[in-house]
Amino acid sequence: MATPDPNSASNPSPPAVGKSASVRVDQPLHDDLAALMQCGITASDAIRDAVGLLADIYRAAWDIGGYPQGIAPLIESANLTPYDAVRHPEQLSLTPRPTPNRGLSDARRSVGQQP
What we know:
Blueprint: H1 27-37, H2 43-63
């Protein structure tokens, strides 16, 4: 992730609510979308979920003071909840499939919290 230049005079802003965002699909993005869409979600939902997850991580890093506001945190790992066959509402249309039982914790847990 690129770190914004603190000396930059302008900060980009997101598109207005209700407007579309556009991004050129290169091979890495295509491959990433293909992986996410295996769960039965659309490309739009995959992008929305991925941006939401990353934004949650950024906000958590800033809120706990781990990084200054506006500086992209370095993400070294992700934690996962162990698979169970029960589908939870936050899984949306995710297709259940087996995963190794490695005792992983929740991916959306706030940065710095212990399980």
